[in-house]
C-alpha cells in the first residue's frame, strides 16, 4: 500500500501546484526555463504513475476490504462511465462539450473515480479512485474560479462534438468488450 500512496502523493502533488502554489510554476519557468520545468514535471508525473500502477497491483494481491458494494452498483457504474471517454476526447478538440463543461478531463476523472468506487471497496480502491476523484473535483472548482483561465477554442459546427461522442463511445465499447480485462485483469461486466 505504501508504494501506491507514494505514487499518488507524487502524481497528485505535482498536478496540484496550480491549486496550492499558483506562482511557483511561473517562478520555476522563469528561473530554469520552460523546457526544464516541463521535463521535471513530466519526470515526477511518470514516476508517480509507475508507482501508482505498481502499488495498486501489489495492493490487489492482498486486499483490505473497506466496504462491499452490491452487485447492482457495478451496473450503475457502467452507466456512469459512459461519458468518461467522450469527455476525455472533448478536452482535446474544439467542441461545445468543452465550452460547456470548461474542463472535461477533470469531470471525466471525477466520474471515473466515483464509478470505480461504486464497484470496488478495498482500501487500495478507496485510495486510488477516491484520491483521483477528490483531487479532480478540487482542481475543477479551482480552475472554474480563475478568471480568464481555461478559455477554449470556439468550435465550428458540431464536428468536434461528434468526434468526442462517437470516438469516446467507441473506446468505451472496446474497454467493456475486453480491453479492461486485458489491461487490468478484471472484466467490467
UniProtKB/TrEMBL annotation:
Pfam hit, one: NnrU
Lipid bilayer topology = Multi-pass membrane protein
Instruction: Name the residues that span the membrane.
Output: 36-59, 71-93, 113-141, 162-184
Which subcellular locations apply to this protein?
Membrane
| Domain NnrU residues, every copy | 3-188
Q: What superkingdom heads the lineage? A: Bacteria
Q: What is its main location?
A: membrane
Q: Has the keyword Transmembrane been applied to this entry?
A: yes
For this UniProt entry, what's an example GO CC term? membrane
Q: Which residues form the signal peptide?
A: none
Q: Which UniProt key words apply to this protein?
A: Membrane, Transmembrane, Transmembrane helix
Q: What protein name does the entry list? A: Uncharacterized membrane protein
Amino acid at each position: 500500500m505504501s508504494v501506491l500512496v507514494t505514487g499518488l502523493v507524487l502524481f497528485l502533488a505535482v498536478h496540484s501546484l496550480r491549486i496550492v502554489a499558483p506562482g511557483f510554476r511561473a517562478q520555476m519557468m522563469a528561473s530554469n526555463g520552460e523546457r526544464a520545468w516541463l521535463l521535471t514535471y513530466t519526470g515526477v508525473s511518470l514516476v508517480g504513475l509507475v508507482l501508482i500502477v505498481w502499488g495498486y497491483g501489489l495492493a490487489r494481491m492482498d486486499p483490505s476490504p473497506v466496504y462491499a458494494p452490491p452487485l447492482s452498483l457495478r451496473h450503475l457504474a457502467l452507466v456512469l462511465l459512459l461519458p468518461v471517454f467522450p469527455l476525455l476526447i472533448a478536452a482535446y478538440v474544439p467542441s461545445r462539450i468543452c465550452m460547456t463543461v470548461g474542463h472535461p478531463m477533470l469531470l471525466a476523472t471525477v466520474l471515473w473515480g466515483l464509478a470505480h468506487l461504486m464497484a470496488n471497496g478495498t482500501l487500495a480502491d478507496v485510495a486510488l479512485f477516491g484520491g483521483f476523484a477528490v483531487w479532480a473535483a478540487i482542481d475543477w472548482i479551482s480552475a472554474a474560479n480563475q478568471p480568464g483561465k481555461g478559455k477554449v477554442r470556439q468550435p465550428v459546427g458540431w464536428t468536434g462534438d461528434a468526434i468526442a461522442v462517437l470516438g469516446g463511445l467507441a473506446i468505451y465499447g472496446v474497454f467493456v468488450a475486453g480491453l479492461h480485462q486485458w489491461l487490468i485483469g478484471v472484466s467490467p461486466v
